[in-house]
Structures are given as C-alpha cells and as structure tokens.
Request: fold
Amino acid sequence: MVNTAAAAAQFEDRLYTEYDLKGRVRLAIIISMVLFVSFLLLDWIYTPQYIRTFAIIRFSVAGLEFLLLILSKRTKSHRGFLNLAMTMVILDAVGIGIMIQVLGGFLTSYYQGLNIIVMGMIVVIPFAFREAIFLYVLTWAVYAVPSFIKVFSGQAPLVVNGASIELWRFVINNLFFLTSIIIVGAVGSHSMDSTRRRELRSRIQLEQTTGQLQESNAKLKTLDELKTQFFANVNHELRTPLTLMLAPLKVILEGRMGKLEAGLKDTLETMLRNGYKLLKLINNLLDLAKFEEGKMRLKIKALNFIEFTASLLTSVKPLADQKQIKLYFQHPPHDIELTIDPDQFEKVLLNLLSNAIKFTPRGGKITVYIEDKDRTVSLIVEDTGIGIPSNMLESIFDRFSQVDGSMSRAHEGTGIGLSLVREIVALHQGKAQAESELGKGSRFVIDILKGEDHFPPDVLDRRQEEQPVGLRRRTSDTQEPRVQDIVTDARRLQLVDLERVDIEGPSAATKTHDALILAIDDNPEVLKLMKILLSDEFDLELASSAEKGLAIMREKSPELVLCDVMMPGMDGHAFSRAVKADDGLKHIPIILVTARTGADMLAEGMQAGADDYISKPFDSVELKARIRALLRIRRVESELAMVNRNLKMRTSDLVDQQRSLFLSTVKSLVSAIDAKDEYTRHHSTRVTEFTLKIAGRMGFSEKETSDLELASLLHDVGKIAVPENILNKPGRLTDQEFALIKEHPSRGESILRPVVELKDISRVVRAHHEHYDGSGYPDGLKGREIPLGARIMSVADAYDSITSERPYRKAASHRFAVKEIIRCSGAQFDPEVIEHFLEISNALVQEQDQGPAAGGGA
Ligand code: ADP
Reply:
C-alpha cells in the first residue's frame, strides 16, 4: 500500500518534471500579466470612460500575479506550482468577471477573455482532470452567476434594430459559446493529461525492460568471462599432468630406461598416441579460449609462403600415401613473400589438410593451390572427398560444428579445427571460405593480404620470448615440462588423429583359451585396448567393421561378440539384427559397446537382438564379468539343448518299447481268439504270415508292414463277441447264427477304434470281408475303396480257410485253394493281389514238394 502510494507520488512527480510544470507555470503567469496589462489598449479604445477603473483592476491582477511569480521562486513541490497556477487562473477569471460587470454585464464582448483563459489552460498548464474541471466551473460561474442575477432582476428587454429582444436570450447566446468552449477545453485537458500519463508509463516500462536487459547482459558478460577463465584454468590444469605423463612415457619409449618387450612397447605407444590426441584437443580448446577472451596475439614475420606450404605438405604426404591419396601442389614459379604468424598459420594449413585426408576416400586426390593476386594471396585446399551440404558451408566454421552428428559418423573429430582456422585467418585480417559439391569434393579458400600494414597494433605480440600456446603463464610453469619438451615435432601433434594403427586379425595364432571372442570397432585404438584387456583370459579375433565381423563369425564361429554401436557403414544395431536373422549365427551372444547411454539407446540395442550392453569408457573388470556371465548362460543353454536331445531320444525309445509291449499283448490276445476256435487254431498267425509275404512282394514300407501285421493278427478279434458254440458248430448255421458271425469285422473295428494308434488298422480289420466286386460285407465296398491291406488279407484269409479243417468240412488241398482263389479273381479278390499271391503260392508248392506240408495245408 505504502509502496503503491509512494510509487504513485513518484509517478506524478516525474510526470510534472518531464512536462516542466515549474517553467510552464512561470511562463503562464508572465503571459497572463503581460496580456492583462496590454489589454488596457483595448479598454482605451473600447471603453475610454472606464479606463481608470480598468487600469486599477488590471494592475491589481497583474500585481498579485507578480507576487505569485515571486512566490514561485520559493515553491519546491509540483503541488505548490499547481496551486500557484490555479490561483493565477482564479485571479484572471475574477478580474475579467469584475470588468464584465462594470461594463453592464453579459452584453459586453469582454466575456471572450474567459475563453482565452480556457484555451490557455489547455495549452500551457498540465492540469489534472479534477483541477481543470474546478477551474472551468469557476470560469463559467464568473460569467453565468451575475448574468442570471441581472436577468431575474427584471431589466427591460433590449431593442436591437427596432426589435425588442429579452435579456435572457443574450445570456443564453453567450453562455452557449462559453459552455461549448469549456466542454472542448475539459475534453482536451483530459485527453492531453491521459496521453501524457500513458506516454510516461510506456517510457517507464521501456526503461525498466532496458534496465533488466542491461542487467542480464552484464551478468552474462561476467559469467562468460568467468567461464572463459575457468575453461582456460581447467585446460591448463589438465595439460600439466598430461605433460607430466607423456614426458616420461616418451623417455621410456626411446629406450632410455632399458629395452622394451614388443607387446609392452606397443601398449606404451598407444598410450602416447592417445595422450597426444588429448593434448591436441586441450591445446585447441585453450586457443579457442584465448580467441574468446580476445587475448590471442600474433608473432608475425615475413617468409616465403611457397616454401612454408611445401614444407608442411612434406609432413602430410606420408599420411596421404597411407590412404593412397594423391597430393598435388600448384603455385606460381616466383617466390611469394607473406607476413604471417608461422606457428598459427601452420595450424590453419594442417587443419585443412588433415580434414581433406580425413574426408577423402582411398584413392582420392588433394590439390593445394597458391594464387598470387594483386593485393592478396589465395591458399586453396581442394579435395575429391565426400563434400559438405550447401546449407552447412557457413556453419562448419562455427565452434563444435560437424556435418553429420548422426550415429553413422564415420570420422572422429570435435568440430574445433575449422573454427580455429577462421579465427586465426581473421586475426591475420584475411578471409576463410568453403565451397563444396556433395559427393564430389570440397574447396577451402583462404585469402591473405600482402604486406603488414593491415595488422592492427593490438593483435601483434611484440615480445621476443616464446609463449606456450594459449597458456597463462604462472611461476610454476617454468619448472614443468612444456609442450615443446615432449612434442619436438609439433606437426605430429596436429596430425595425430590421422595416424593409423593396424590391428585387425587374431590376437594369437594358436588357441590358448576356452572361449574365442570377436571384437568389432572402427577405432583401432579401442580394438587394441580390448586386446590388452581381454587376451589374458580369452582368444580374440578383431574386426574393424561389422561387415568384416560377420565374415569372421561365419568362418570361426566365436563364442561371443563385442561390437561398437557407432560405426561407419553397418552400425552395431544393424549388425545385431543381421546376426539374429542368420540361423547359423543367432545363438552367438552379442554385447554392444557404446559411448552413448540412455534408456532409448539400450532399448534400441536390445530390440535389435543384442544380449547385453556396456558403455564406454568401460571398466575391464565389469567387461570381463559380463563376458563370463554371458558365456556361462550360453553354456548352460547348450547343455540344456543336449539334455533336451537326449530326452527326445529316450522318449522315442520308450515309444518303441511301448509298441513292442503292445504287440506282444496283441499276440496273446490273438492266441486267446484262436484258442476259442479249436478248428481255426493258429489261423490268425498263419494269415498274418501269408499276408506279410504278399505285402513284402508289393513293396510295403516298414511302417505299413508293421501296421498290416497288427491288422492281420487282429483281423478276427471281433469273434470274441461270437459265442463259441456257434463258432465250433459242426452242422449248418442258421441264418441268425450266420448273421452273428458276419458281424465280427465291424465288432473288431469297434474294439480297436478307441485306441488312437490302431485307427488305420481298425479300418483294415473292418474291411477284410469286403469283396472286390462290392458283394462283401459289412459296407459293400468296391475295388480300390477297400484298403489294400484288407484286399491282401482277404486272399490270405481265404487260402488259410480253404486249406484248414472246419467243423462243417474237411481241409482242401493247396491246389484246390489256389484254383478257387483264381476263380474268384476280380469277383471276391483283387486281381493284382492274386498275381503276387500266385508267385508266393508257387514257392509254397515247391516247399511242399521238398518237405512236409506247412500249417493246415493239403
Ligand atoms: P572436426 O574435428 O570434426 O574435423 P572441423 O572443425 O575441422 O572439426 O570440421 C568441422 C566439420 O566440417 C567436419 O566434422 C566435417 O563434417 C566438415 N568438413 C571439414 N572439412 C571437410 C572436408 N574437406 N570435406 C568434407 N567435410 C569437411
């Protein structure tokens, strides 16, 4: 509340200050005094008879207003000034009012003076609405009140041009104008007042916003400075211990501390190389920090630019050769002198060249041109590499910008190189630009001014002493090894990213451990690390791409695969999918290794079929533990598969056993049937033998033969339901009895059908009394409708019946039986079956001729 009141007071104060209330009030008083007095001239012309009275009135008002003017000198507050202004208006109005009355009241044109007051109030003094209204009402009253008094006092009407007009008509006439002017004045005052207030409010708001912006800006600036400072300090702190690690490493590698065993040397070299990479990164970051702080200085000197470039190209050549990239240099025949900072410019050129090598595929071409122009020299590095999309041509010079941030980024990098290039070139007052056609190549153009006048003095470092790159010097630095101490060849440091390590192939020629592991990573250093970490416990195969990994898997069938996720070409996820879709490989567990973490990444990997996930940098203990766990699971799985196989085998054994048990049960059952019928003893067994002989000739398979065997053994099982006295009846059977006997095939089927295994057999049993011509029973089946087994069985059954003794007849001879059967060919029997039967019967005859008759024959 207090605050809002104070704020409102402050607002009013500001409003009037800005509008210069004090000055305006003083001006208004002076104008009023002058006008009041100078109107004496009008009095002298218009009403000379009242000149003295009017002079007194006018000088009195002017005198009082002069007092107001003096008072205004002492007045401090805006309120006070407003009061002075109000008093002035009252004085003016009263003065004019008196003069109107002296002149006879409402008929005089002196009331126009009141109009002047109203106009003056709107224009000169910023009265608030309420004050203005008060003054307008007062002004109106000064004229209206005495006029009405006059009208109502009964004064005679005036005669104008011979016509008599009532007084009130004159009063209304004048009041009409005065009131109109006052209304216009009130509206005008109000709108001007609110416009002033609105304007001030917007201005205050604007000022506040600007203030806030300035404040945030200042804060950001401080933060930015702090960040840059912190950045520089941290980098420095990183560089010192790194230098202290690399320096002794270098001494060891140079053999100054004794001869090194090959494996150890290899490992130490990897450490040194990666230390260099880190050092390069830190140096670049320090340089960036220096640029950001605006503290980078150049140590310029004039040099032969062609020689300078040629020497750098010589350093780069072996790296280009390694990738079978051709390196060309085209320059004018004459020397070109340029003034540059050689150390800094070396970074420019090496960055451009190392990018060109990095982004140009094997067999490509890099050309460096130097073009001598009027005032400038252009250095152009052109390659036939992958190119840069046109929308990225500008932004690749931004810090940390890289063309493809996706998973399949084929090259390492931080996106700092080109931003340093642009900063260094800009410090040389030059220009760096890129042109490119995607898929065809890129062209980087650096324009450098000739001479040295263009260097502003504040970018030049005039000191003689060498300063380590981007490093704030401290006293402690002098005792520590410096970059120059360990990196004698600064160019190697710049190009260390391009150094290639060949690592693919098996870790050891012979198998020394239980499990063979395949590691896939496009970074040879990581493969090397895997080898160092894992080769004491596992045999290792290494592959630099997923495609190569798949080939090794097919050839060597490793127990487990470790695969990097982000790789050029086929990435880890695609690799997992390919493995899991291949029946020959899908049992091999995969562990994906990635630098990116997060639930999404994990889910994607697992969905692709990976068995586990480990993130970089990985801990060797954890990695080994995960490998062991997966191998254990894999072994348990294969043991389970083996147990499963054994179980299946045992189950099929059991089924076989069950079947043979079943067969022997069936055989006992058959003996029981045969025993019921003393005449047909062993009939089923003989029919079976005969049936199988014919089936053997007709090429039955093992399963078909074994089913047929069962069917014929059981073909008369339905006779169990036929009373023995009927079966053994010596005389003729009654129709009823015969009908009962004829039921035995269908009864046999009903007995066997419920046993699932005997479904097919039961059909054969049911059909064994069917006739080829359809005259048999129980279903009257015809020709091939009758199961083949039943057709064979009916021949064997008939043969055995004819040749064995029955209660109602004697046994017939073999020849008779054969004749009978042939006679019935095509009617009762299948002619094709009879053909085979005859072949067997011939053999039987021969047997009988050689020895005693078999079964119930002859
Ligand atoms: P980086 O460390 O990633 O190489 P740079 O600042 O040197 O950082 O390059 C920024 C990006 O510009 C690179 O990641 C690459 O995408 C693109 N680039 C630079 N030089 C080339 C080139 N010669 N051919 C194709 N792309 C390039």
Observations:
- The pocket of adenosine-5'-diphosphate is lined by residues 351, 355-356, 359, 383, 385-388, 396, 401-403, 413-419, 442 (CB under 6 Å).
- The radius of gyration is 60 Å.
- Residues 405-409, 464-481, 851-858 have pLDDT under 50 and may be disordered.
